């Protein structure tokens, strides 16, 4: 039984480490994204069947690639693909397994694949979504939540992107070094999307997926080494370091969410904060401000404040104002409203939140009613706060966040119980 469990654990580890590489390899072999993903899934399913019986192979990655490739060949043969096509695939397979050195300058395989997937012939949103789906193993549902759309809409976007790649015969190859900058915006968004899914999971029992956070930071560090004079690459790395520095304090021993105001700042990683601030300083000296640098500056305001009462909310509100000029999204507007509420009082923030609510731009986004509930609670509007918490509770994606909202709901349902009525901002 122990061998079975060990083999299953090996498959899980191989999925985390090799999924993107196996799919990318197959895309290079067969030139078909859907077929590549389907055959990769088949290979991992076969691993679950065979590894417990036959043992874990010496090279799991090679086993998975070979199994997936053979599955693709079988599929093509059954589809009556001619021998000419199969001979072409044999040549392609050789070149994929024995690639010529490229001049991208990218030493890391995962980062090279991300740059390869982020093809400028596609809209940036499509590049990011397709790369997250293909290389990171994130589900369509998880990606849809990141883009604030439903799963059906995201699935259609992915299909359209794959169709465009097929119809336009867009090549799947590593871009040369001089073409990397044109793909940087999408690459940054992919890495940030990976980090966000790790830092605040879109579903499930756990709020934090540590492995995704660590992988995103690793990729950010490699990107900065590759492009040291790109201020937004530095800004993204600083942002991830500054957020990740608070990771240990975000949940308590019971796994429950701890708001930023209530976190034990002694648990914050001061070395990571110092590193993040130093990286941000490097970015600022390049004098090309961008969204990631502004987000990192906001994170630095939180991380360098000795306590909640020392947080410079006026500065944070101003930074969100600048960010909204560069990136006028409803999520940025919501965060700006929170900062204004903290700087100028809950009524000022609530007016902005209600405006966003009326626009319908964040329909289904649980943090909108959760934020509204917190502001109503601070104003003592208990019945309205209770209704907003109930709405947020139906939308919250993780067990951790649902437990937090349930606690707040109990407090406003019984406001005379002496519960804390301070701000409930989440990190």
Per-chain topology:
Layout: H1 2-30, H2 33-54, H3 60-78, H4 83-97, H5 109-117, H6 124-135, H7 140-146, H8 151-167, H9 184-199, H10 210-226, H11 231-244, H12 270-285, H13 291-303, H14 313-326, H15 330-344, H16 346-359, H17 367-378, H18 382-395, H19 399-413
Helix pairs in contact: 1-2, 1-3, 1-4, 2-3, 5-6, 6-8, 6-9, 7-8, 9-10, 9-11, 10-11, 11-12, 11-13, 12-13, 13-14, 14-15, 15-16, 16-17, 17-18, 18-19
Features:
427 residues; 0% strand
Give the gist of this structure.
With 427 residues, the chain is an all-alpha fold. It is built from 19 helices and no strands.
Describe this structure in words.
- With 427 residues, the protein is mostly helical.
- The protein has helices spanning 2-30, 33-54, 60-78, 83-97, 109-117, 124-135, 140-146, 151-167, 184-199, 210-226, 231-244, 270-285, 291-303, 313-326, 330-344, 346-359, 367-378, 382-395, 399-413.
- Helix 1 (2-30) packs across helix 4 (83-97), helix 5 runs antiparallel to helix 6 and helix 18 (382-395) packs antiparallel against helix 19 (399-413).
- It starts with a helix and ends in a 14-residue tail after the last helix.
- Residues 82-96 and 418-424 have low confidence and may be disordered.
């Amino acid at each position: 039984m122990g061998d079975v469990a060990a083999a299953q654990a090996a498959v899980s580890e191989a999925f985390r480490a090799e999924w993107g590489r196996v799919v990318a390899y197959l895309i290079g072999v067969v030139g078909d994204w859907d077929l590549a993903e389907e055959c990769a899934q088949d290979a991992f399913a076969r691993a679950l069947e065979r590894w417990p019986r036959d043992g874990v192979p010496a090279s799991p990655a090679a086993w998975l690639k070979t199994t997936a490739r053979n599955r693709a060949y079988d599929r093509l043969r059954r589809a009556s693909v001619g021998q000419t096509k199969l001979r072409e695939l044999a040549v392609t397979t050789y070149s994929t397994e024995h690639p010529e050195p490229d001049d991208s300058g990218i030493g890391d395989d995962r980062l090279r694949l991300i740059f390869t997937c982020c093809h400028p012939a596609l809209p940036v949103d499509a590049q990011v979504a397709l790369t997250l789906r293909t290389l990171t193993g994130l589900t369509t549902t998880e990606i849809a939540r990141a883009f604030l759309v439903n799963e059906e809409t995201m699935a259609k976007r992915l299909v359209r992107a794959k169709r465009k790649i097929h119809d336009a015969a867009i090549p799947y190859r590593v871009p040369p070094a001089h073409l990397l900058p044109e793909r940087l915006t999408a690459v940054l968004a992919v890495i940030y999307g990976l980090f966000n899914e790790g830092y605040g999971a879109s579903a499930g029992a756990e709020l934090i997926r540590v492995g995704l956070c660590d992988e995103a930071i690793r990729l950010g560090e490699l990107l900065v080494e590759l492009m040291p004079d790109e201020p937004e690459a530095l800004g993204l790395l600083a942002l991830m370091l500054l957020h990740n520095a608070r990771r240990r304090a975000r949940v308590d021993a019971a796994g429950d969410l701890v708001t930023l105001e209530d976190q034990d700042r002694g648990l914050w990683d001061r070395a990571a904060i110092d590193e993040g601030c130093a990286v941000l300083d490097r970015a600022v000296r390049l004098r090309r401000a961008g969204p990631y640098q502004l987000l990192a500056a906001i994170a630095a305001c939180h991380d360098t404040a000795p306590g909640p009462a020392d947080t410079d909310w006026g500065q944070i509100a101003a930074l969100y104002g600048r960010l909204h000029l560069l990136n006028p999204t409803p999520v940025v507007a919501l965060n700006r409203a929170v900062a204004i509420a903290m700087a100028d009082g809950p009524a000022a923030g609530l007016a902005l939140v209600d405006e966003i609510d009326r626009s319908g731009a964040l329909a289904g986004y649980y943090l909108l009613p959760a934020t509204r509930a917190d502001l109503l609670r601070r104003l003592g509007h208990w019945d309205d706060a209770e209704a907003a918490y109930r709405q947020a509770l139906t939308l919250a994606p993780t067990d951790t966040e649902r437990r937090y909202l349930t606690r707040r709901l109990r407090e406003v349902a019984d406001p005379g119980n002496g519960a804390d009525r301070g701000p409930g901002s989440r990190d």
